[in-house]
Amino acid sequence: MPETSESCETPILEGVALTKRFRMPAGGTLRALDGASVELFRGEILGVVGESGCGKSTLARLLCGLDRPDEGEVRFSGRPLTALRGEAFRTYRRSVQMVFQQPFASFDPRLTLGESAAEALVNLGVPAPERERRIAQLFERCGLSPELMRRYPSEVSGGQCQRAALARALAPEPCVLVCDEMTSALDVITQRRVLDLVRGIARERALAVLLIAHDLALVRAYADRVLVMDAGRTVETGPVADVIDRPQSDAARRLREASLD
Ligand SMILES: Nc1ncnc2c1ncn2[C@@H]1O[C@H](COP(=O)(O)OP(=O)(O)OP(=O)(O)O)[C@@H](O)[C@H]1O
């Protein structure tokens, strides 16, 4: 895993000079991203921090292909998404999975957790008995009894629902996991348990993880490198200890001071 972005390894996922504007209802546009760049390498956990509204979720959505940049490009294994066709695009879609902040909102309330988790496998043409077996294994790996596959989202706790969301994200065997504030809605003990699980699975499967978090302590505990964002820009990146303990940018200094209050 590279310590710096000077590595000659090709990032598995990359955003280059990304700009994203949103039209405002009252007129005018808002620049949610303003030339933001990020490199994510195989096997690393990259923490993304920044004040609320600085563009973290927008960056995550562009990297996952849920939204398109107005300028700049996203690259998967060195290839621009705009150049990916057919099987290459399907591989990207399968390989980059996202876990969202609100566990319940990310599930269809009419499907059981098992059915939701199996959807990606249905799309991949995996036969029903094999789907059942693979999802049961993933539930167990994520600390859930396979019995929970038959429950609806409203019948489990927030922590269980987020574990099921993790199992669902892992089902298509991705190589990148984008976790957008995935533990913010959970109590501090459950947060740690879920992040321990994410880290363990990431190490086992050599996953690259983009870990968006408000809490610097969580990023310090779980990330290898950290990227600091400020007003749509990426302003500082480096190993966690350097950026958090010896911040160079005003944004990183502000975050550090706020976390010490
Ligand atoms: N679909 C949208 N339409 C209009 N404005 C948007 C949209 N999505 C995001 N924004 C705006 O873009 C800016 C960046 O939002 P974003 O959600 O990426 O920030 P964030 O850093 O993830 O914030 P938080 O930490 O509070 O989740 C904000 O000002 C937000 O209001």
From TrEMBL:
Q: Where in the numbering of this chain does the ABC transporter domain appear?
A: 13-256
Q: Which UniProt keywords apply?
A: ATP-binding, Cell membrane, Membrane, Nucleotide-binding, Transport
GO BP terms: transmembrane transport
Q: InterPro entries, from UniProt?
A: AAA+_ATPase, ABC_transp_ATP-bind, ABC_transporter-like_ATP-bd, ABC_transporter-like_CS, P-loop_NTPase
* A Pfam family matched in the record: ABC_tran
An example of a GO molecular function for this protein is: ATP binding
**Coiled coil segments of this chain:** none
Query: Would you identify the family this protein belongs to, as annotated?
Result: Belongs to the ABC transporter superfamily.
Q: What is this protein called?
A: ABC transporter domain-containing protein
